[in-house]
């Protein structure tokens, strides 16, 4: 399914994640919204299955996790993630919410969690394709880049897909810059938003389901012989849960190296680039801000509505708790977003430019490529110690 509005017969398919949150808030609540597992479905058949309504919203395709997707996970873990996403839409009042699955998939786990009437099935391109694996086994020994974005409100001027577009571009750019050292997974367009009730359209996989899902991904890939992973997030709400995932993964698989980082464009290279090119003051970079607006103006200017931008820098700040891209202070909290923003934005989006977006993307890719090399070094040096019998590794060497 491409990024343009798709017409079939007298029906119009629209891409949910290309809308702004206020446009979603205005949708009739009986508009069918469909979350597809993968792509390659027959849209005419889909329209028939839904009794040919005037408009049908297509959510971003879920990239993997089901049988035949290339990366199969335990069904209860997989379907809980999906159910939480569908419930986000139902919580917003939508009454016709569906998961589109490949024909032949037997979602028994989902039937327990969600009414079967909300599951649509039809032939899928993977039904006729030879079996593939994500990642291919040929990529063992590389750092597996795992980009995770989100489908979330970004003020009046940016689409719901901001986080996904940015982190996918960074991951693909990193894999292109260091192709012999890394390989990028398909981007995941759904993460965690604990604040989702504040503004319409924001999805939420749920923290526990999110952790279970990604630990299962690492379990599956480690069992196939992959041993270096970089969980790359484009959405701040994912970050604390990714730290837990990294901890769980390191405890369960002692011979892997699994890492994450706070968002992107925020390490040594990224922070220097932010300081060099930003024109907003502290508080101008947080969400739908100078930084994210610049990225989107560079990557997808067709999705930006700069005539609707509203700068919001009235965050309730104190010395140890304030908002900026690289958050400062020693306090960690999660007050309602409604306290600090009227439009869903944190920061000065009006300062965004496509040129800044280009420069910051280059810096972010360079930063991630440096992290890839560091992950390799960490894994290789630790393996050397283990193999030499360092400390308790010598005592338990036979059990490695």
Verbal overview:
The chain contains twelve helices and twelve strands. With 400 residues, the protein is α/β, with parallel strands linked by helices. It has three domains: 6-126, no CATH class; 137-155 and 171-263 and 370-386, 3-Layer(aba) Sandwich (Rossmann fold), CATH 3.40.50.10310; 268-360, no CATH class. The strands form three sheets. The protein has a six-stranded mixed beta sheet, sandwiched between helices. Strand 7 (143-148), helix 6 (162-177) and strand 8 form a beta-alpha-beta unit. The relative contact order is 0.12. The model is unreliable at 1-5 (pLDDT under 50).
Low-confidence stretches: 1-5
Provide the residue-averaged pLDDT.
92
Overall form = globular
Strand content: 5-15%
Oligomer: single chain
Give the CATH topology of the largest domain: Rossmann fold
Overall CATH class of the largest domain: Alpha Beta
For CATH, the homologous superfamily of the largest domain is named as Creatininase
Helix/strand-derived class? alpha/beta
Can you summarize the main beta sheet?
Answer: 6 strands, mixed
* Separation of the first and last Cα atoms: 46 Å
- Which sequence of SSEs, written as H and E, runs from N to C? EEHEHEHEHEHEHEHEHEHEHEHH
Number of helices: 12
**Helical percentage:** 25-40%
The CATH architecture of the largest domain would be 3-Layer(aba) Sandwich
**For the CA atoms, what is the radius of gyration?**
21 Å
| Domain module count | 3
DSSP strand tally: 12
- Biggest sheet strand order reads 1-2-4-3-5-6
């Amino acid at each position: 399914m491409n990024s343009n509005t798709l017409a079939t017969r007298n029906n119009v398919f629209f891409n949910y994640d290309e809308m702004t949150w206020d446009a979603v808030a205005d949708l009739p609540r009986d508009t069918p919204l469909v979350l597809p597992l993968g792509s390659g479905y027959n849209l005419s058949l889909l329209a028939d299955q839904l009794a040919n309504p005037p408009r049908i919203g297509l959510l971003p395709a879920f990239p993997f996790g089901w049988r035949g997707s290339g990366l199969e996970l335990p069904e209860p873990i997989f379907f809980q993630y999906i159910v939480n996403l569908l419930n986000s839409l139902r919580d917003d009042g939508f009454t016709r919410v569906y998961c589109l699955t490949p024909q032949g998939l037997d979602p028994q786990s989902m039937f327990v969690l969600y009414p079967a009437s909300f599951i649509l099935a039809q032939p899928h391109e993977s039904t006729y394709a030879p079996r593939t694996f994500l990642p291919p086994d040929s990529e063992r020994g590389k750092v597996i880049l795992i980009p995770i974005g989100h489908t979330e409100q970004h003020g009046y001027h940016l689409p719901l897909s901001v986080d996904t577009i940015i982190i996918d571009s960074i991951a693909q750019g990193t894999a292109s810059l260091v192709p012999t050292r890394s390989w990028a997974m398909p981007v995941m367009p759904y993460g965690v938003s604990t604040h989702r009730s504040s503004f319409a359209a924001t999805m939420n996989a749920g923290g526990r389901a999110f952790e279970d899902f990604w630990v299962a991904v690492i379990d599956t890939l480690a069992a196939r012989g992959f041993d270096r992973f970089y969980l790359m997030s484009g959405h701040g709400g994912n970050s604390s849960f990714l730290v837990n995932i990294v901890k769980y993964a390191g405890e369960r698989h002692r011979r892997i190296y699994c890492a994450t980082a706070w968002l992107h464009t925020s390490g040594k290279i990224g922070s220097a680039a932010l300081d060099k090119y930003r024109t907003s003051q502290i508080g101008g970079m947080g969400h739908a801000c100078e930084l994210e607006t610049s990225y989107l103006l560079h990557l997808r200017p067709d999705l930006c509505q700069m005539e609707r931008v509203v700068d919001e820098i009235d965050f309730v700040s104190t010395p140890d708790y304030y908002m900026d891209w690289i958050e400062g202070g020693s306090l960690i909290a999660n007050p309602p977003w409604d306290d600090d923003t009227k439009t869903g934005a944190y920061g000065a989006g009006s300062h965004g430019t496509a040129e800044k977006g280009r420069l910051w993307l280059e810096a972010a890719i360079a930063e991630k490529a440096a992290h890839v090399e560091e992950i390799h070094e960490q894994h290789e040096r630790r393996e050397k110690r283990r193999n030499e019998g360092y400390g308790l590794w010598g005592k338990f060497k036979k059990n490695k």
